[in-house]
Specification:
Helix content is about 40%, strand content about 20%. With about 450 residues, it is an alpha/beta fold.
């Protein structure tokens, strides 16, 4: 019965790091609209920044990020020049009264930057935006890039969270995904970061990889636990070769099936919880004192384009090619093509090429979907208080789903629509019930487990 349920509920749906999701963005949101949105931020807003480095010195075949391989540093230098220009351009449109509470460097591989370039980039950001004294600064790290000079530079820019992509330590799996990274390398990076007083370490693990088994995944989880990270992300590999052509290098015939993926996810989750980590949303785990666990217990957990977060900023500015931002009025995405991105920003303009202006109904549905993804349910009273015009129709949808649900995924509990223990692994599928845009058929998505 469980296998049948998993197979039936694994249909592709969005990951809901936004609502509406990126396939529904269009070209009606460009530089002029974006400039207006930026100019309307005030001291009452808190701002989070995401800076994208779309380069790697090797291309991991599992990766679905917007990145490219380069063995020369010259393209990186040229890109950084354009990124500095965009930072100055956007900073000039945002009031200095707006406080930056979080900064995330992602990629690609931000740690391939030369040490002085890391410092210069942070100096450029500080010259253009007003940072809170306690701003969180997180960096995605590739252990293969790192040396003492780069570790020192990361300490100099004030990194507070080190985020390490591990995926799997099994050599056969690593070879199949072109991600060779030993446990000893990884441990050395964690120790180097902690020696420089980084406050938090996050590790990413993937399940559903080629040649991965319950036994090999369990070995990886045990190795990760020995590092005692503060947070662990347990992601399902998204095989989307129609979007990322390099994923065709992975033989689909050796990927675990839907049921095997579910079993891998369940095994790893049980191991992490047994080790003292609290389950956060659908794919994160954190030690009880970590901010993510505290936010989950307090009902303040959020979800954005970086996944689950305890960042309470109400505006996110994406910097760099393909980056996505979220402002009170809606979403905006930069030009993905690096060359065209550079041309736009070096001419003094903004690189926004598409986005979405939120309607009242979008905001109501975004509220419900985020609550399902973060808290596994929502309050009808809270929905009515924040979105009264649309609370009636959404309440009716929730009640209708709960009473028609023969799989025991959700129920009505007084004032709340709640997912059951059986329904929590399928939160994406339940959230999709409230997605008014999904039926339009735009975009293809990864499977739900």
């Amino acid at each position: 019965m469980q296998h049948t349920l998993v197979e039936r509920l694994s249909s592709p749906v969005p990951r809901y790091t936004s609502y509406p999701t990126a396939p529904h963005f269009d070209e009606s949101i460009g530089p002029d609209v974006y400039a207006g949105w930026l100019g309307r931020l005030t001291a009452e807003n808190r701002l989070s920044l995401y800076a994208h480095i779309p380069y790697c010195d090797r291309l991991c075949w599992f990766c679905a990020c917007h990145t490219k391989q380069t063995l020369r540093y010259e393209p990186v230098e040229a890109y950084l020049k354009g990124l500095h220009a965009e930072i100055a351009s956007i900073g000039g449109r945002v009031s200095r009264e707006v406080s930056v509470t979080a900064l995330h460097f992602g990629g690609g591989s931000p740690t391939l930057l030369r040490p002085d370039d890391m410092r210069t980039l942070k100096t450029c950001l500080e010259a253009s935006f007003s940072f809170a004294t306690d701003a969180e600064i997180s960096v995605e790290m590739d252990p293969n890039d790192l040396d003492d000079a780069r570790h020192d530079a990361l300490a100099d820019i004030g990194m507070t969270r080190a985020s390490l992509g591990i995926q799997d330590f099994d050599p056969t799996v690593q070879k199949a995904i072109n991600r060779i990274q030993t446990f000893e390398q990884t441990r050395g990076v964690v120790e180097a970061a902690r020696a420089r007083n980084v406050r938090s370490v996050n590790c990413d693990i993937l399940y559903g990889l080629p040649h991965q088994t319950l036994e090999t995944l369990a070995e990886t989880v045990r190795a990760v636990l020995s590092l005692a990270p503060d947070r662990i992300a347990l992601f399902g590999y998204a095989h989307v070769p129609w979007m990322k052509k390099h994923q065709t290098m992975i033989d689909a015939a050796v990927l675990p099936g839907v049921v095997a993926r579910f079993e891998q996810m369940a095994l790893a989750a049980d191991m992490l919880v047994s080790a003292g980590y609290e389950a956060i949303g659908i794919d994160h785990f954190a030690l009880p004192a970590d901010g993510l666990a505290v936010a989950a217990r307090q009902g303040t957990l959020r979800r954005n384009f970086q996944g689950y977060t305890d960042d309470q900023a109400d505006a996110l500015v994406g910097l760099g090619a393909s980056s996505i931002g979220q402002l009170p009025e809606g979403y905006v995405q930069n030009m993905p093509a690096t060359g065209e991105y550079l041309r736009r920003v070096e001419e003094g303009g903004l690189a926004a090429v598409r986005g979405y202006a939120l309607t009242g109904e979008d905001r109501a549905r975004a509220f419900v979907i985020e609550k399902i993804m973060c808290d596994f349910g929502f309050s009808f009273t809270a929905l009515a208080a924040s979105h009264p015009a649309f609370s009636g129709i959404i309440r009716a949808e929730a009640i209708g789903f709960a009473f028609a649900d023969r799989d025991g995924l959700a129920r009505i509990d007084g004032d709340r629509f709640v997912l059951t223990a059986a329904g929590r692994p399928f939160a994406r599928t339940v959230a999709a019930v409230f997605d008014a845009h999904l039926a339009s058929g735009r975009g293809r998505h990864s499977i739900a487990v």
